[in-house]
What we know:
Blueprint: H1 6-10, E1 20-25, E2 31-37, E3 40-45, H2 61-75, H3 87-109, H4 113-133, H5 137-144, H6 147-164, H7 168-188, H8 194-197, H9 199-214, H10 219-232, H11 236-252
Antiparallel strand pairs: 1-2, 2-3
Helix pairs in contact: 3-4, 4-5, 4-6, 6-7, 7-9, 10-11
Amino acid sequence: MNFDISHVLDQWEYQAGDIVVRKFTGKDGQEKIQLRVDLGLLQMNASGRPDGKQPFGHDTLLEHYLAKLAKYRQKHDGSDDAFKLSAEECARLQQEAIQFHHRYICLFQLKDYAGVVRDTERNLKVFDLVQQYAESEELAWSLQQLRPQLLMMQIRAQGSHALEAGQYEEAIGAVEQGLEKIRAYYREHAHPDMAEHSGEVQSLEMWLHEIKSTRPLSEREKLENALKDAVRREDYERAAKVRDSLRNLNTSQ
């Protein structure tokens, strides 16, 4: 068995500063993703747990601990007051979350926006589970501090998916709603100053401005602009015609 992958790396150059990724079908018939890094490459499954393992017979560790929580509630008459995740269990969940983080970064580069939303939603469930049941606040914070970055990736994917379909209003709505989630996070964690000055918020604000500035105008907006232009030029005959068109548009709607 030849373990040397030099020939693969020689045919696929590493590009510093770029995310170099590709998708292919493996010998097992499953889609795989490869990420080129400076010292080699990372390979992961495109769906399911990225490393293909099934911890404790479940598809992911998250599902294992959710099942464990459900059994605990069943045994304690629906109560979960004393259910806790140990430091080791939180560390395992965090390691698994990192796998999904690597994958959704790759999926975004591949423009698989639905896959990014799927994996970020999954990691948010991990964050929520750890926040509620970690045996200490320090353990919970180890993941919670990563929430803004994760939300930003999810918002980018949702917005990009809408833009691909030419749905500018949906994209704007997704970004605006996502920005409010990030701001709420900072307010909740006593960092109100970061609600406007964090890297995630500023990056998304710039993108939102870009989307709005490139959004095609609706028929109403075109007529409103034409009316303003006609009034500015004192072309009242043209202004009257545009007003009639606006009234007709209002009637038809």
